[in-house]
Amino acid sequence: xxxxxxxxxLAAQYRTAFGGRPVEVASPQGRFADGARLVDGQPxxxxxxxxxxxxxxxxxxxxxxxxxxxxxxxxxxxPAPAPVGLIxxxxxxxxxxxxxxxxxxxxxxxxxxxxxxxxRLGPDPLRTDAEPDRAWQRIARSRTTVAALLMDQKxxxxxxxxxxxxxxxxxxxxxxRAGRDLRAPEWELIWGDLVTLMREGAAIGRIDTVRPxxxxxxxxxxxxxxxxxxEVYVYRRAGQPCLVCGTEVRTEAHAARNLFWCPRCQAA
Length: 268
Fold this sequence. Notes:
268 residues, alpha+beta, four-stranded antiparallel beta sheet
């Protein structure tokens, strides 16, 4: 599932491609045909993301998209080709088009319904209106592991498995610690680091978390090869030596997701 930085990047792409002009809206697949007709020909007033949710503003009607595990968006240069495959939503103008396939959610919301989605989410490190103290209040009193809490979208919106594993490693925090055992200064470092890392991810379209002294160039090692892309410390590096201490990176199933950590750098 794409992490939050991808949704913010998509929001910027939609604004650039379609903002301020009438947009042709269609559902070639047919599953969103009724909703598409309601906003077809309307200008796109804006686009924003909150966590893993994307919202397109059609002036009082909000198009709400959640990509889920299989959703993808592809942009192309007009004219748009004949639809191929199950395209749930196509936006197009005389310059560009964007096709949405396989989302978990594609629906129209009223402003009140949109507000209800935001209310269910924790603070998003990429939003200027984020209130990190809301997340801290839940974390500080929870017996749940900090690893699980960082992935709980009701606690913190937009953070996925990669950012969760990497930010805990970068600050030497054992993933199995209970949230209530985390200290306030540690949370402040986690939040600040997420803001920085996710902004960089949104800008370049991939997740890089290693510090300058641990890049392939600095260490004389080959670049990482993975369909995720990006240079990371522990994510999907189970069984490989830690880039900092050389200890074998571990993995386990944790709260239904794969957890990665270094048992030495993140000692309990």
